[in-house]
Amino acid sequence: MKSATMQLETLVCPSCTLKIEGALKNLEGIVKDTAQISFNTSKVKFDFDEDKISIEEVEGAIKKLGFDILKSRVK
Ligand SMILES: [Cu+2]
After folding, report:
1. CATH assignment of 2-74, given 3.30.70.100, 3.40.640.10, 3.90.1230.10, 3.40.50.300?
2. Would the pTM of this model clear 0.90, i.e. be above it?
């Protein structure tokens, strides 16, 4: 299991956080109850199973929603 933190471009409204959170929770391999997005800091955090999904795939899903990822860290 890995932990990811992503810094997104500044989110302009709270519904963006819900949209991203919903998308994350639909991805196979992400531990649903660890997925959290802070509207104030535009940060996304979640744990994931690297055997089921790669960080690139998660990034792709977020970008597809129209949000840029400024920084992404996995540990
Ligand atoms: Cu929005």
Report:
1. 3.30.70.100
2. yes
